[in-house]
## 1
Amino acid sequence: MSTENFSTLRYELAAPGVARVVMDRPSHRNAQNVQMSYELSEAFDRAVQDDEVKVIVLAASDPHFSAGHDLSGDGAVRLGETQPAIGTWGGFKKPGVEGRYAREQEIFLQNTRRWRNLSKPTIAAVQGKCIAGGLMLAWICDLIVASDDAVFSDPTVAMGVCGVEWFAHPWELGPRKAKEFLFTADSWTAEEAHRLGMVNRVVPRAELQDHVLALAQQIARKPAFSLQITKQAVNSAVDQMGQQQAIDQAFVLHQLGHANNMLKFGSIIDPSGMPSAIKKSVY
Ligand code: ZN
């Protein structure tokens, strides 16, 4: 996969010191298939390796930031065949729990953790709907700026699992609100997410991209190394509070949910909980 030939996203040098990665599958509401996962990794790596880039923006083509994970297909890559794994797992086609566990380790857990630990500041620009797996993409960014029409939800409990694979809900929302968010699957507004501390800023939709770019440029004027070590220091503090272990534990419970669904329904999700409007595109 050439870094020059992304098909699910655009890579832009948006301003001096700022790279912008724009998810660009609007016909799929920017649902993340496996191809997009690897293109995101490649785009982030490119930004990290470019010494002129100091801040990375993750944005999305209108109208929605992300409808979550795309279950309708992997795109133009075959995991473990045409696409080498970037994590430590293999055996993606094995039957039983083995293959599913390895696949989700690779594309949902290890990949996501890698993005969370990129050595440069990242800012998510979120508009429209940000659902389930879309939350994972926003949450791994250091800052989140949302448009005033953004809404956030994780409807996966109705699908028989305990939330999306990157289980940062208690850290992003606090434990009590995380339970409400998951139990009800309600959509929460940008303003509510801001009140809970999940979102840094809320701005009018028309101003979102300009606002994020100005914020990125403000940050990019700081010394690159102090930005890097500051990010590392904060992430390390969160790690010391147990986030990594909590996410790893929830990931195993998530796999237990998938296994239970397979035994009961022959499907990794409970089909009765799959909202028809977002069938195939979200979990
Ligand atoms: Zn899963």
## 2
Amino acid sequence: MLSKLQLHGDVWLAADIHLGPNSPKTAHAFYQFLQQAQHEAGALILCGDIFHAWIGADVAVDPPPWLAHAIYHFRNTALDLPIFFMRGNRDFLLDSRMAHYVGAQMLDDQVILQTDHHRLLLTHGDELCTDDVAYQKFRHRVRGKRLQQFFLKLPLLWRQRIAGGLRKKSSQKQKHLLPAISDVNETSCVELLKKHDEHILVHGHTHRPALHRMQDTEGHNYSRIVLPDWEYDHTEPTRSGWLALQADGQIALHRLHQPTVRFKLKKPHELS
Ligand code: LP5
Ligand code: MN
């Protein structure tokens, strides 16, 4: 059984911000977004890869300037707005204590979100990239508690080097990856939804924002909403955005440089 999160009012969701030392423009744009959310949203959920690479909460004891800024902005926003963190493939080492430290609450890796009008399954989405066999093996290993405990006891410099090495390996791999295997596998998405008797999936990770319709072999309909990533420092055009699950039942996918896409999704009993 997945844990359930019940929220009221407008719920905003964002993912893949990748905050870190080399993304000051992205961070600036994201902190402006936090301010907007503080005034306009009822709750904010960050669905993983909030950080470029999270290597342990002790970094926050004497934080480098980029992290000090992030902590300041999260805490300030959390004074008026409930904030929820989900782990991604870059920050799977985030824990509840760290989330509390910045005024947020830590969520499980997969959650059923119930709002005034919607019920949906929320995940970062990397576990659904099942065609990427090498990644799934890697994921299984680094999600092991013993390896994580071992890693977290290493000196900070070693952890930074290991994370840097993994990031390098990952970015070199992207160039050789067929676009198909770095996307989620839709059969895996539908299976996950069916397993939990859900019809709407929201995820990030792939950086391919869109609304997809999916069908199972019996012709039942499902929806998949992909959250945008945030990038203002390294590539053009700049990218960002978020999903608003509005209390009036509308859903809005906001994206930088793109018209906002507004839609409604049928309730499960109205689907064929
Ligand atoms: O992140 P992104 O989008 O570039 O690519 C991902 C997959 N890559 C990753 C790796 C992360 O980017 C690095 C995260 C660093 C976090 C902090 C370090 C904490 C270490 C803790 C150890 C307990 O997630 C990439 C996918 C891509 O998404 C698309 O879905 O393809 O997958 C990979 O690049 C993984 C390679 O395929 C396999 C790498 C094997 C490396 C072997 C090392 C063995 C484990 C060592 C543990 C210390
Ligand atoms: Mn990711």
## 3
Amino acid sequence: MTKPKLFIARKLRAAVEARAARDYDVVLNPEDRLFSRDELVAMCRQVDAVLPCHSERFSAEVIAELGPRLKIIANHSVGTDHVDLAAAAAAGIVVTNTPDVLSDATAEIAILCMLGAARRGAEGDAMIRAGKWDFWSPAFMVGRQVTGKRFGVLGMGRVGQVTAQRARGFGMEVHYHNRRRLPAHLEEGAVFHDTLEGLLAVSDVLSLHCPATPENIGVLNARTLALLPDRAIVVNTARGALVDEAALVAALSSGKLFAAGLDVFQTEPGGNPEIAALPNVFLLPHIGSATEETRDAMGFRALDNLDAFFAGTSPGDRVA
Ligand code: DGY
């Protein structure tokens, strides 16, 4: 039987690519080049399936040009904001994602961002690297301690829940706002707020974990930042689109916010130079799920979804 033809848009872990090559007629991207929009369309028109990352954008216009052969977009990501799900569904293209497997890795990065921001990690690191550490006193590089503070989670899905567990390890009191209140065994004592405003008012640290759906775009803006306690810390490991970056820069510059720890930006790759120029930020280049274990698990999960689809069953992680 001929194997389905699969385009793997970015370089994946060797074991993932080996399994894919065993089961599919694969087209790989060994140089890990970011394909242009037109190249992506041209590649997808020649295959039965594509395995992209969040770096490949499937807008409604792109989907309209994909032609009749492509049957499934099996994402190597939990986020699906780079795919117009309604357009894919209308075109009869199945879309899947990779939930669950990246929750631990992303929670680790959220905690790193929180601590890096609270304890001025980037400032201290830069000072030593530049050979400028020439002073010490009890007044030197004083940060904010997170122990005993209130940890606000916006979006208590899988990543939010694991991050909340890690924050409890620092003696933090967990608060959250979510579309739906969680059952008690998942809440684990976290305090539910039925409004965003209620959560913001008590968040000494606010950590974003909601998807970048149209209603969540810019959820953290001048109005909502003003509702946080003075000298709060903002952590974003979800999507840059959730934050109005100009408002964030203003809040960080005025002292309304003590600091921010960010793994995601509106413009990626690259980030935001105005944010990068601030001293009170701890910044990472969208590496929340970038561990060996999690990259393997994401790749295998995407392949599981493809296998189910080509076996004629519904993939477990179907989102469209
Ligand atoms: C995800 O899975 O959505 C991560 O942001 C990596 O793409």
